[in-house]
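FAQ

Q: What does a record look like?
A: Structure on top, sequence underneath. For example:
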């Protein structure tokens, strides 16, 4: 939603100022200039990007147009899931959750937290870590290093769409110049035309430069930054899960572990202590 609002504001500001100076919108409609710029930008993106990256960029654009990657409800759901798992482990032991880890979609614990199940990266991160705990006697500090490596690897992979789109943004001003130069080349063929005709041709050529710069700084560049912010939010979400798991390994107390995880939640999305405590109590009664 905010991406759409931003697009409207950019267009409103640029075109509003242009029209305020009695500009003619029809002069900005130069389809062939757009074909050169966007065609070259798309071709360059395809040349630079394997299929995996193209699919990642497509998925990133879908997420971009959501209100935000994570909400307070998503964090609450994750904290409650950790609480349910930790209480079951303390009561019945690590072996008791093996069936839950093998089939999260059918697990009575996981089925109560559908938003978490839909987050495939977070689900794999949690279940793989718990599986490791069931088969090894790894120390908390060693597990911490392992989880840090995994989070960093996922973060670098999540940044790929942002970096790819940023490269396209960087290329757009240059491609705008290419379109403008080609327009000037065509104008030179009409060098004997009246000044009014030459002026129109040169103006049409300059639309290419305008389009390339506007798309870079007004649209594509900010979209790349948006994708980077989404990757940062993914990292923050996994860090919350990591904090809860490591705390539970060090001190097998569900209440303490969940509080450690809650403190790591970004401040604007963090539930209060009492809010989370009441939710945990309600979950325990079910």
């Amino acid at each position: 939603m905010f991406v759409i609002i931003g697009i409207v504001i950019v267009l409103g500001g640029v075109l509003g100022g242009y029209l305020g100076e009695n500009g003619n919108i029809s002069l900005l409609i130069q389809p062939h200039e757009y074909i050169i710029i966007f065609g070259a930008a798309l071709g360059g993106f395809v040349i630079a990007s394997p299929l995996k990256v193209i699919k990642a960029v497509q998925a990133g654009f879908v997420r971009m147009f959501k209100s935000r990657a994570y909400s307070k409800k998503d964090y609450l759901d994750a904290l409650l899931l950790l609480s349910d798992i930790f209480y079951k482990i303390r009561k019945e032991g690590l072996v008791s959750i093996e069936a839950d880890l093998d089939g999260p979609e059918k697990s009575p614990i996981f089925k109560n937290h559908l938003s978490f199940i839909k987050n495939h990266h977070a689900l794999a991160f949690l279940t793989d870590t718990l599986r490791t705990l069931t088969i090894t006697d790894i120390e908390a500090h060693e597990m911490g290093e392992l989880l840090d490596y995994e989070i960093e690897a996922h973060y670098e992979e999540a940044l790929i769409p942002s970096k790819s789109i940023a490269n396209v943004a960087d290329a757009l001003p240059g491609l705008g110049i290419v379109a403008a130069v080609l327009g000037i080349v065509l104008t030179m063929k009409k060098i004997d035309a009246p000044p009014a005709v030459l002026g129109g041709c040169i103006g049409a050529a300059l639309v290419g430069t305008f389009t390339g710069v506007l798309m870079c700084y007004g649209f594509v560049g900010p979209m790349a930054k948006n994708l980077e912010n989404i990757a940062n939010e993914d990292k923050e979400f996994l860090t919350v899960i990591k904090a809860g798991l490591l705390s539970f390994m060090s001190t097998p107390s569900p209440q303490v572990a969940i509080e450690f995880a809650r403190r790591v939640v970004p401040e604007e999305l963090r539930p209060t202590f009492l809010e989370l405590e009441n939710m945990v109590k309600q979950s325990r009664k079910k």
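Q: Is there anything notable about this one?
A: The chain has one domain: 1-22+29-286.
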